[in-house]
Amino acid sequence: MSTLDPAITVAELRKFYRVPVREGGLVASLRSLVRRRVREVRAVDGVSFTIAPGEIVGFLGPNGAGKTTTLKMLAGLLHPTSGEVRVLGHVPQRREREYLRRMTLVMGNRNQLQWDLPALDSFDLQRAIYRIPQAEFRRARDEYIELMGVGDLVSKPVRNLSLGERMKMEIIAALLHRPQVLFLDEPTIGLDVTMQRRIRGFIAEYNRRTGATVMLTSHYMADVEALCRRVIVIHHGLVLYDGPLTGLVERFAAYRQIGVTLAEPADLEPYGEVMGVDGAKVTLRVPKAEASRVTARLLAELAVEDLTIEEPPIDDVIEQVFAADADVGLEALPS
Amino acid sequence: MIDFYITMARTAVMEQFQYRTANYFYMIGMIAEPVIYLVVWSTVAAAQGGEVGGYTPGTFAAYYIVWTLVRNMNIVFTPYAWEWRIKDGTLSAELLRPIHPIHGDIAYFGGWKLVVIVLWLPLAALLSLLFRPTLSPTLLEIGVFAVAIWGAYLIRTAFLWALGMVSFWTTRVSALFELYFALELLLSGRLVPMSLLPPWAQRLADFLPFQWTFGFPIEALVGELPPAQLLGGLGMQLLWIAVGWALVQLVWRAGVRRYGAVGG
Amino acid sequence: MFRLMYHYFRVGALNELQYRVNFLVQLLQSAIALGVGLAGLGVVFSHTTDLGGWTRPELLAVMGVHTLMLGLINAVIEPNMQRLMNDVQQGTLDYALTKPADAQVLVSVRELRLWSLLDVILGAIVLGVALAQLGGQLGLWQTLGFAVALLLGGLMIYSLWLMVTTVAFWVVRVDNILNLFEGLYAAGRWPVGIYPGWLRGLLTFLVPVAFAVTVPAEALTGRLTAATLGLAAAIAGGLLLLARLVWRIGLRRYAGASA
């Protein structure tokens, strides 16, 4: 497989579940004893994308959108109902040894380390599981420990570590076998800002040094902004957007945020939607098309001490994207 | 693979040594059962003129003291925990590794057994002082015993794995498990030595793996089995390990397919 | 008003349906346990006609009492003690302590595992069969003696279990000791007389299994002496007082610790 071949190919991927319908009431309970009614849940409903080697792609979507289901299918844990999946030329659901040795899946709140022993022992176990040659293993391990800055923590029992420290160890353990594909599901969830930055830096560095392909889901926009040049947005089991992060904001952000600091308080209702007031600073939301016009008016009509124009935070943009109905389609969304 | 087994077993020894007090309490609690059986059968033997079914109170004592070690060797991953393992995500983690999860169980519990054997020795000494067993094993018997306890461990691992995997399809499993354990209790040599069972039960037990996990290891050490039977017994253990392994392969493949279709 | 009745009926029926599954599970488990017990008894008596002076139907009676008592323990005593231990470990005992009723009574009766009473019924059936096989008539005194012995035995087990659980106030890993306790209770399936002296002492005085099971069985099979019953009453009374004392000490420790 040459480096020009895509690392991950997904074509018309679908995953449907049959879920029993649970109804309340006495009659329904009796009826369910005799005959079970099922309905079909379409967790993933025709997802397609291609990821080149070395890309770091953000995978965004609200809970229940199909993110985790897609990741699990890429990891081989779930079998697609229909469609094709290829990662590094392998079919994940076959769970070939070769494939499992070249990939890793890190779920934010799963604990894969031995609880009562120091992390070093868990690392050694990983070495044995993945059959990493001693020299390579030691090199990788020491490299990661230094990168994460946990040298003084690796000899403490894992149960004595904080959540953030444990997460660092989990990630180190997940990468000891130098996988070429990383699936990261909420890796920074529940961690403080310093930890988040540390882990983000680590992933970026790993990608830089090894050229590994990374698919990352996160609720923290900071993660996505820092690491991903490309994002795939999924909702109701469908891809809503697949392209550069900057494009996402431009495409979906229908508004601009104007921060106005006034010399004396005034009512800004006539100019736009007031989002918040912080002392003398007022945040206004105006449609993108009118941003320059409103700005001009503000400067002309009021005593303005300071004025900024910003794109809305990506969180808001994403929220808006999710709030929009999937049936509407990309074209119909305001731009 | 050997590297994996050694590393995993070492992990188990380190962890379980930390929990040695809890392990000890569990072992002590377990002693009540064989002591009860021992007393009951010694009473019966006394009433029948000093012997019943070829066992004297002395050999009964030997049987039930060795029983305590074999019982510990029989403890494997409980089928009840499969439901938790599937729902918890632990199984997902195992499925992502390039190693069949059963190796992890075998290696971990195997390492644990090493700790258990060490903890057991003083307990056995105490019991011998209290109940005065009649025991004079030959070198061959000791050798066969040492191998048979691990054979027993492997057989039970395989069969309880297969049993536990039923959890892939349903969680209403307690009746099935309880029935299995009840049959095992009666037909393995755990409740009574095999020779004391009625002939029809002994014949039934010949078609089941149970006696090779319990009765045979004990009898290898305690009974007066001729070398042919000792080695033949090891052969039977091998046979049942193969059967168990085949069963595990079958059910596992179906189970993973089911898991992949349905999720957790 | 009829709407209210219908509402209660609906809720009750839905609950019943849920219970039915658990009921079936318990039925199966009890049946299997009983089957194993009977099989064990059968094997023993295929080699002898007498065990320590007890005949087969007499031993069947012992097994019946054992099952019956186990049903009571699992229905009333065990769920409450389990909940008490959980409350202590999680610090939620305060809710019980702030109620106006006496704390000890409250923590001892608030839980009930209904379907464990099935074992009481099964035990009674086995007992009935055993008595029929013995062909004896049940005199008034015998029945009375049986009921009293049963009650005393239950109180003893309750006292002991409460004491062990109360120690959980001081030592937070008592579930291992309960394991031992359960193992010792299993010994009660056989009359205590067959155990060697030192072991019998352990059983009779440290764990009142003998009193809970053997003595009521003795009552039914006509072996009970007034002396034994008197001793049982004395021990039951003593254990109750001791349990109360231990409870109050533990409570003071607990209240002190969480204040």
In short:
Chain A has 11 helices and 13 strands. Chain A is an alpha/beta fold and 335 residues long.
Which architecture of the largest domain in chain A per CATH? 3-Layer(aba) Sandwich
Cα gyration radius of chain A (Å): 24 Å
Gap from first CA to last CA of chain A: 40 Å
Tell me the strand percentage band of chain C. Answer: under 5%
Poorly predicted ranges of chain C: none
Explained architecture:
The complex is a heterotrimer of chains A (335), B (264) and C (259). The longest helix of chain A is centred in the middle third of the chain and has 18 residues, at 193-210. Mean pLDDT of chain A is 83; it is low at 325-335. Chain A has helices at residues 26-34, 67-75, 97-102, 119-130, 134-148, 163-175, 193-210, 221-227, 245-252, 291-301, 314-323; strands spanning 8-20, 38-51, 56-60, 82-87, 103-107, 181-185, 213-217, 230-235, 238-244, 255-262, 273-278, 281-287, 304-310. Chain A is globular, with a radius of gyration of 24 Å. In chain A, helix 4 (119-130) runs parallel beside helix 6 (163-175) and helix 5 packs antiparallel against helix 6 (163-175). Chain A is built from 11 helices and 13 strands. In chain A, 35% of the residues lie in helices and 28% in strands. Chain B has one domain. In chain B, helix 1 (2-18) crosses helix 6 and helix 2 (20-47) packs antiparallel against helix 3. By secondary structure, chain B is mainly alpha-helical. Chain B is globular. Chain B has 12 helices and no strands. Chain C has one domain (2-258). Chain C has 10 helices and no strands. Chain C has helices spanning 2-45, 56-90, 94-97, 103-109, 117-134, 140-166, 175-186, 197-206, 209-220, 226-258. Chains in contact: A-B, A-C, B-C. Chain B binds chain C through residues 22, 25-26, 28-33, 35-36, 39-41, 43-44, 47-48, 52-53, 174-175, 178-179, 182, 185-186, 191-192, 196-198, and chain C through 25, 28-29, 32-33, 35-36, 39-40, 43-44, 46-48, 50-52, 173, 176-177, 179-180, 182-184, 186-187, 189-190, 194-196, 199.
